[in-house]
Design goal:
This protein is mainly β and 220 residues long. It has one domain: outer membrane lipoprotein receptor (LolB), chain A, CATH 2.50.20. It is 15% helix and 45% strand. Strands 7-8-9-10-11-1-2-3-4-5-6-12 form a 12-stranded mixed beta sheet, with helices on one face. The chain is globular and about 50 Å long.
Length: 220
């Protein structure tokens, strides 16, 4: 079973090719901000981001909260959810480890498809099938953030809005809220962002030796 956090990555935030058809209707101020976020992230060689994932119902009642960490380096990434899943990707293979059953599923990235990777959350996540506009600025704690509203062009998607809060000073994403048609709301909030962490390539590969008795399902 996919974690809610992974559901966001797979269903919403990490897209690929630029859609020129939608661009004419977009807010140029919002595009300037988003382009700045993308350019800033591309200067980072590796990133470690701690996050909080919150699931709410249509009335705003919190149904669950989880903490985790995202690591990225080039085209490699790793997502660790406390009490949930660990996802490793070395740029070619993806290992999804389910802690509750000590099981790992291995799959291969399809380069011919619209590859979905966490890096795209911070870079060109807005580049396909979205209209976007700047809603304004507000204070969240001590941070001054800019809210950008994303609306999918494809109305058959299971969500109808995505709200991004951009840290104006840092030019990084502070939070992302996904509004599903069912009424469910998913929010991903970055609590810390380390842009100078030293990450080895081995950290992005699942090592079965470290998980005694793990069941391996290889779909490659």
């Amino acid at each position: 079973m996919k974690s809610p956090f992974l559901h966001i990555f797979l269903a919403v935030l990490m897209l690929t090719n630029f859609n020129m058809v939608a661009q004419a209707q977009n807010d140029p101020k919002a595009k300037t901000i988003l382009d700045g976020v993308s350019a800033k992230f591309k200067t980072f060689k590796s990133v470690q981001a701690a996050f909080v994932f919150t699931n709410e119902d249509a009335k705003g009642k919190v149904l669950g909260t989880r903490k985790g960490t995202l690591y990225t380096k080039g085209n490699k990434y790793r997502i660790t959810l406390i009490g949930g899943q660990d996802i490793f990707c070395d740029g070619v293979n993806v290992w999804t480890y389910d802690k509750s059953v000590n099981e790992v599923t291995i799959s291969k990235i399809d380069p011919s498809s619209n590859s979905i990777t966490p890096q795209k959350l911070f870079t060109n996540f807005y580049d396909k099938d979205f209209l976007y506009k700047l809603n304004g600025e507000k204070k969240v704690g001590a941070k001054l953030v800019q809210e950008i509203e994303l609306t999918p062009v494809d109305k058959t998607r299971n969500f109808f809005k995505v709200y991004l809060l951009i840290d104006k000073a840092a030019k990084t994403i502070y939070s992302t809220k996904v509004m599903e048609k069912s009424g469910t709301r998913f929010t991903y909030t970055v609590s810390t962002l380390n842009r100078s962490v030293n990450l080895s390539d081995a950290q992005f590969v699942f090592d079965a030796k470290k998980y005694p008795g793990v069941e391996i399902i290889d779909l490659r």
